[in-house]
Every structure is written in C-alpha cells, then in structure tokens.
Records
---
Amino acid sequence: MKVEAQLYGDRRVFTVSAFNRGVAQWLTRLPTVWVEGELTELRRQQAWASVFFTLKDPADGACVPCAMPRGQFDALRLGLENGERVHVYGRPELWEAKAELRLRALSIERFGLGEHLAALESLKRRLAAEGLFEASRKRPLPRFPRRIGLVTGNDAAAKRDVVTAVTTRYPPARLLVAETLVQGARAAAAIVEALRAVCAEPEVDVVVLARGGGSFEDLLPFSDERLVRAVAACPVPVVSAVGHEQDAPLCDLAADARASTPTAAARLVVPDLDELRARLDRARDGLGRGARLTLERHRERLGRTHERLRRAPPLLLERRRAALERAGARLRALSPRATLGRGYAIVRRDGTLVRAAGAVAAGDAITVEVADGSFAARVE
C-alpha cells in the first residue's frame, strides 16, 4: 500500500499510521542478517502463533526483541534456555501498531553457552564438588516453627503470597519479614546481610527466601556464590522459593527445601490448622473407641474372674471334703477298732498289751476291749 501524505498548503503531513507503515516498508529493503547474542526472556504460550525472546549483547547490555513463528521454532528442536548464546538469522521489521523495532527470526543456531550461563555452570560444578548440594546436608523443616523468617523484596507479590498463605493455613504463626534488594548488582550482598540478620533474631526456626518470577538476569543474584554459601551455612533450615517452576537458581540447590512458588513455600513451613484439627478429632475419636473397647474387655474379664471366684470356694470345699472322706476311710480301715468290729479283742494287763499267752499267769487281772466297750477278767 502506497504511503501518501496530506497537503496542508505547501506542507506534506503524514498520519502516525502512514509514518509507521512507511518506515516498515523501508525496513523491508534491508537484507537478512545473522545476529549474535544471549537468549533471554524466552516467552511462549500454546495459544500464541509466535515465540518471543530477546537477544542481549553481554558486552554492553544492548538488546533487541525478536519474534519467530512457533512452528519454525518448534521444528528446530533446540531446547533453548535463557542464557544461551545463539546466532539468529532474520530481518528487521517494525510493528506498526506501536512502532516497535524487532528482529523477525527465520532461523536460530546454538553458538554456545552465554557468558553468564557458562560462569554459573562452572560455579555449580565447583560448589557441588565441595559438597554444598549434597542431600545428606539437607535438614528437616520444623513441624511447628516458633517464628518464621521471610527474606524477600519490597514488591508486594511474593511477600503477600507467603504472608497470606502462612496466616491462612496456620493463624498462630509468627512471621519476621526482612525486605531487601532482590535484583541488580547490589542485590546478592543485600540478601546475604538480610539472611544473617533474620537468623540472628531469637526463636527463628526456619527462613523462607522468596522472590517472584523474572528474567534470567533478574534472578542472577540468587546464583551468586556469596548467597549460595550463606544459604548453605545458615544455622536454621532455609526454604528457597525463587522464581517459577522452570527457574533453577543455585540457591535452590543449597537450600534445605525448594518450593516452586512463594505460596508453595508457605505450605512447606507451616501445617494446615484445619487439617490438624481434623486429625486431632480423628485421634480423639480413636482414643475414645480404644478406651471403650479396653474397658469392655476388662469388664468382661472381671466378670469371668468374679464368676470363677464365686464358684471356687464351694468347689474347693467339695474337693477338700472328698479328700477328707477318703483319708477318714483309710484311717478307719487301718484303725484297731475296725479289727475289733470283726470280732477280735484287745487284752491288756496293767495297761500293757498282751501279745502272747505266756505273758500272763493264772490269777492275773486283765482288761478285755471289744468293739462296743471293755470288761475286766481274771486268768484261770
């Protein structure tokens, strides 16, 4: 479409749309070129027709926005991540609606790791070799922390998410919030100082290090060696909740626990009060049922014992009576009187048993005992 100006006397005036369209048409005359830079701010959505990203010059920070049709980007199957150095082949174009210059990417080739990413990989390997990321170093989080430290930026989002989630889940929780720089060259030192100050406060049992999402460069302070070592040396457990799920700063590896979002961090550091109450109710019901069952078992056992005790004396008496009768029968069988009952007699002379006929002489007085009594006699 031809760009035409409107005439006001001897003055030719272009509308904004005509001006933008004219510049956009002029840019189409420029050739396609290769541009080298670090891939940052990679953005894509399933509903978007294009993939958007930014190329950054690590030398001076100069940036150019880029766009590439999603089908072409996916067909390359490069698996690109923020921080990688790439070569992008494309041509400049102007988005007429807002007069924004960008590079229309036609192809991308991986050139190598960007300087930042290469430095991070080297630092990651070095710290891992020192054992700072070992799972054995991870400490369990306290079940009921007396006081929770929160180190975050002064932006409302991350702090609000943590505070809201903690107070909603566990209203008795006590929070100590330390706001600090979380972006820029001075952020790492500021975060380290805030972390040390929070840990020095009394009764702080766990610290949450939180920041909302951001670009690769925005999150670089959380991969700073000073901060990573401070997190590893922290006297209390640290929960790292930096960025989004796909972000992985080095402080995540040194922390005792990692949360994908600030809200998820709150779920890690405090229990759910409603759930605790429900568990207590279930435990109380279980204890009640257990006590009732135990009482019922003891009652039944006591009843059986009482019945046995009730029956025991008569049974014992009957057994003793039978034993006594058996003993009496044996005694009666062995008693001399039983012998007398069969017609025998016992003869005594002067109270001494007469065992032989020669033991007495004529005229001796003797006593004769029979079964039903005794009588006196004299020997003839």
---
Amino acid sequence: MVTFQIQNNNIWKSLDSVSEWVSKNRYIGWDLYDGLNSIRIQKLCKGSKSLEMVFTQLNVYSPINLRPLLKIEKGRDTKGSALFAQTFSNLYYLTGKKIYKTELEECISLLKEMSLKKIYNFDCWSSHYFPYLSISKIKLLPGIPDIIGTSQVIIALSKSSKIIKDNTLKEIISSGALFLIERLLEKRNGDYFFKYHLSENDKTEVLNASAQGLECLSYVLALERNNYIEDVCEKITESLIKNQKKDGSWIYSIKINGKERIQLDFHQGYILDGLLSFLPYSYNKHKIIESLNKGINFYKNTLFLKNGESFYRYPMKYPVDIHNQAQGIITFSKLQNIDRNYLYFAEKIALWTIGHMQSEEGYFYSHKWPIITNKIPYMRWGQAWMMLALSTLLKEMDYGE
C-alpha cells in the first residue's frame, strides 16, 4: 500500500496567496504573447510579419518588462477566464464556500458574453484579447475562434453546470461541441484532426490541439452520451495513437506537405489528458492504455527531473517554464486513475514550483534560468494555469481545507 504525504497545507497556502493576488488585479494583466497589443508596435512593424514576430518573441523572453515602455495594454483573457472558472469549480467542490461559487458565476457570465455565436452561428471563442502571430505566421485576431479557447471554455461550462443552476449552459455546450465537429474537424491521409482555427490559409495538423478537442468532447459526453460525438472522438484517438513515436512522444505538428515540427514540452501533457479523458467512453481501451503508458514514461522520465523540475523544450534545459510546471501537476494528478504513485510526483512538481517560482506577493514567475528569473506576472500563462494545477492536485487527493 502506498502512503502519501501530500503537504496540503503548503499547497493551500500557495493557492490562497496566488488567488488573492489575482483577485486584487481582477483577472486583468499581461500575457506572454501580447507583444502586438500595442498601437506603437503596430506602427513600427507596418504590417511586416517578420518584425511582428521579432517584437512578439522579444516580449516573450525578455526578463525586463518592456510592456509599459511599448504601451502594451493589459486585458482579460478568454482562455484565462476559462481556466479560472475551472479552478473555482474545483475549489467549490473541495470547500463548498459561497465565495468560490460567486467567482465561478462571474467567470461563466463573462464567458457567455464572449461567445462569437452571432458571427459564426455556433457558440465558439477566441483564446485571447490581443492579436497574436503564430509560429506559422498566421495572425490570430480576437474575433477568430480557435480550438484551444473554445475547448477550454466548454470544459469550464461543463464543470460549472453541476454547480450553477443555469438552463442555458447545456445548449451552449452542445452548440460549442457542434462548432468543433462541423467547422474544425478535417481528414487528411487517414488522420482525423481538429484545425487550430478557422483560417483557410493554415492546413497544419496540430496534434495537441486535437487532443484538447478530444478532452473537451469527453466532458460533453460526461454530461450526456452521444453516439455521433463518441464516433468523432474514436477517430481523433486513433489518429493520435497512430502518430505517437516509438519512444512514447508526440511531435507538435504536421504540415500539409508532411513536414514535422518537433517541440517536446507541456504539449505532451495535453495529449495524455485528452486520451485519459476519453478512456471511459472508448471501445479500444487497451490501445489507449498502451499509448498512455508509453507517453507517461516519456513525459515523466525525459521531460522532468526527479525533483519535479521540468525541461523547457527537450533537450533544451532552460529556462524552466511555469506552464511546463503547471501542466505537469495537472497531468500527473489526473493520472492517479492509472497509478496513485503519480500523485506523489505531482506533489513534487508543485512543491518545487512553489519553492522556486512563487513570489512573496503570491504570483508565479514565468521563467527561471540558473541565475536570472523572469518575474513578470503573466495572468494566464502563470497565474491561471498554476491556480488550476494546484486546485486539480488537491481535488484529485480530495483534500479540502
């Protein structure tokens, strides 16, 4: 029998601290990729995608916050709000405190307002409040819905529907699920995958994005079984398993010409979460479990050190990224359904992160090198993901205050 010594008091203290900081700032802040959220920068770039990429990446990696100088505006992020909503669902489950239900209701109300249904005829969401230039140089604008933002909102709505008495949530969830299937689902070379967004210019198959769509639809199935959705999920699952490498890893994406992009980081956790979520509903459970075991072995033993510190993008060690840390906590907490020993590793990641990347003010730093630490408090990238991570760990252990 495994004995766990989760230091839940330390984790609760950390979670309360970051939650208080977020509450004081009312969920409004900067984002890691908000470099183009400035009229000054847009004028300097004059539409040049190369210059836009330079300014975006400069703000990503600079440990000095250039945003006040560049007049980059703060905002409230859609995806971040979905993550906060999921956190408050967890916290209400753990404590039953009215304050968490109130915060959850506020987040859900905002997410409902942010739906782009009037434009696209389905409930769907854009991830961010700022324009963002992707690595493929496709510009994503706040009015263009994408798989990640839509999936995270649907997950938030699904989790909150068990707490909030709102008869419209089921309809919105169903509409969002149909958007994923009717507008984003594609087939190529035998693979079924979700497009990242509606742009017709980018036909790249992003594996972890499909996995988030899979996780999202699994939450929908948890509310009500649906043969059509189950069939789509089976096809997405088969494609994810087909594209898994022999070492258990997954590449980031495959272009229409077959060119692969390798990026080994927290996105591995997204795929594991997706497969794990659909496992109860699949008729190919043995294939999913086999794939999960290979993927877990790679994720745990290659992308993390034994003390819970993560690689940035394997084999690149630094900087330690707060999103890598948060995703590790989330994934290994959920994997206790396969082996409860993974909770012990989730705790290790959490305690290392709290000890090395949380400020005295409560917020979490974004990046850490051996000597330099980037202390810019990103609202979504750091705070939202860490709040969800810590609350997920406590929920999986069923540790209330």
---
Amino acid sequence: MDSDLARRLAAIVGERHVLTGIECSPYVLEGRTPEAVVFPGTKEEVAALLVLAGEDAMPVTPWGGGTRMSVGLPPARPGLVLSLKRLDRLIEHEPGDLTATAEAGLTLGAFQEALGRRGQWLSLDPPNAREGTLGGIVASNASGPRRHLYGTMRDLLIGLTVVLADGSVVRGGGKVVKNVAGYDLPKLVIGSFGTLGVVVEATFKLRPRPDTDRLVLARFERVKDAGAGARTLMASDLIPSALDLVDPEALRALDPGGREGAALLIGFDGIAEQVEWQCAELPKILGAGARVDTRVLDGAARDALWQAAGALSRTALPEVTAVMKWGVLPTQVAELVESGGDVARRHGLAAAFSAHAGLGIVTAVLGSRSGGSGGGGAIAATSVASALGDWRALVHAAGGHAMLEWAPLAVKERVPVWDPPGAPQRIMARLKAELDPRGTLNPGRFVGGI
C-alpha cells in the first residue's frame, strides 16, 4: 500500500485507526490480505472513506464481528476492509414504544444486555451473538432457533441508515412500529451481504422479556421418528418458540454422555403458567411410541445447550471440511437428512445435521470422524466437492435450494457457493448498478457474482 493512500486514510479516521501490512492479518479473507483496515468512528467518516475508495477504484469489504465473513465467493482483490467496531453506541431506547436504535458495530450480546435492564429484548438469537454485530446480522440476515415463532430480521427491523458507495447517507423506515408505505430500503439491504451499502444505524421493534423460558430435549430412536414428532407437534395446540431437529452425530456432540438416537430441541417461553402447561403436555402429544425420553432444561443448562446447538457447524465432527445450508419443505427434513447421511458415507465421509424443523432450514456439516484427512489436500477437496455436488442435487430434486456456507478455498474453487439465481438476477444486477455503479462494495462475492 502506498504511503499517500495511508496518509489520506489517516486524515479521515486518525492514524491509530488505520492498519496496514502484518497488522491486517486478523482480517485475511480466503487467504487474501487487505491493503488496509480502517475503523471509522462516525457515519460521516464512513462516507468519506467510501468516496476515497471510489476515487481510487479500490474495493471495500464492510466488516462487523467477522462471524459471517466465510459466506460468499472469494474476493478477487481484498482492497479496503471497513470495520464498524467503533460505531457501537446504543443511540436511543424507548421502552414505552418497544423500539431501540443502535449503531451497526454494537454486538447483539451488548444490545440484549442493555435492553434487558429495562425488561425487553430483541427476539433474535443467531449463533455467536456475543461477537456478531447488529450491522452484520442485518447484512447477512442471520437468525437462530427462535425464528420458528418470532421470525427473522425482516420482521424486526423498522428503520435503517445506510451509507451508499458514493458517500451519500440514506435513511429508510422510521423509529415507530407502523410506518407509511414507500420504498422499503431496510428489506432491500437485509441479506445483501454489504453489496448495496454500509449499514451504520438500525432501529428495531422489541418485545418484553418472557417470564419463563424452557428448553425440552426430546430423544427418539431414529431421525424419521424425530421428524414425525416435529410434524405432530406442529399440528398440535402448543406454540413452541423453537423447534430444532438434530441427527445422531449432532446429538452426540451436544450430549456426549447421553443415549444414542436423534432428538428435538423444543423451546417454550412466555407466561410461567402457560410454559409449564406446555412442557407438561408435550410428552402426551409426542406419545410413547418411538420416544425415548424428554428432559426439561432451564437457566444455565438451557443456555449451554442452545449455545452448543448454535456451534454445531464447527463442533459436530472432529474435522469439518464443509458446511452447506439447505432450504426445503418442513415435511421433507427428516427424509433428506437421512438421505444426505447416505450420500456422505458413499463418499467415505461423515456428516452431521441440525435443522429448524418447523421451517425446513437444514445445516449440513461434512467432514471426518477421525480428523485424520486434511480438508485442504487435493484428494480430500475432490471428495468433499463431489459429496457437496450430490447434496445439492438431492436438495434440488426435492424442490429446495442450497448454499455453501463454509468451505476451504480448494473446495470453493470446485463447488458453486450459491445456486443459480435465475430470473431475479437481472433485478439484482440493476439494483447493484444503481446503488453501486463502480462496484466498490464487496464486488463479486454475492449471488451471480454481484
């Protein structure tokens, strides 16, 4: 990086907020080191940095907590990493309106702690909440088990401030739950992975914290029995806040000393009497046929199990060589999980699966039980790529879609990260051209090479 550019960056954010050379190593992406990392402290500094990058034809990678940076195609040129970690203030909390506004670099964990002091929370529970930032969660549309009842970021975000590639600051939505109709910038930016603009502030609608929160671990002999249990539960009068299914490999990682089999992780929260009644009714609804046992968890044990479930993509197998996300019909989850395991075994690999069973969202982890074969080797990469290709074909045959969430670069060179976008590609490309005509923001990493 030339000294003139470093000087101009420092003039915007201050010399101590610019990293170059070996200092950039924590921000290496897919083996590529950025030319510089900058830490703006205001949205005006974000705007100035984007203007500078545009003038120098330098690509910009927005960076929150880094928890979802593995998603997407490898960058052709790292360019400038723009970290939002200094934009970490809670700007406004209106408990009476059940709304709050915060800067994009505030972590979800810190946000929840601040809201909790007033008896409220943001009903979103993606993995890595302690490290994940609000802006990164918006950009990646990350969520967790409680999306079963409470939805995703699209249901909770009511206002957004974004800095576009030309440095203009744009606001969409508002600070109240009900807004007039108009162009919906917040929903456009959600899940765009930083390709349309840099999120700097966001306003959310909140909920009162539930009086009681329980997690029921219901074990079954087989995956298909757990799938049948999930369908029975969804057809009942119970209202779970979460309904996850884990296969035997994933359950072994969650509860190493427990009995073998598959399981449902069922969350109930709300008024104490209502939650206690649902926990008592659940065994009756699931029936005694294929069920092995149920266990109700609360407090630290509940939180530990949910955190372990969120980490399964990294811990389910001794060596993880790839992680793929599937979107299928909820009724297909158990059958496809079993078929996906057969596919992995045919390729000499191990697999572990967890799923938001009520929504049809499956996390498929591919790897090795022994940890002995290197995921980066040429032979291993070929085997992994073949298995992933067969997984994608399996999901497509069921009418679903698949995304490669994480894999070594050697695998990404062989397997498409995204499914073909089809007709929506034209609309997405036009939006990108309109909002970022120079292709400054995260170029080439999103669907269709946007």
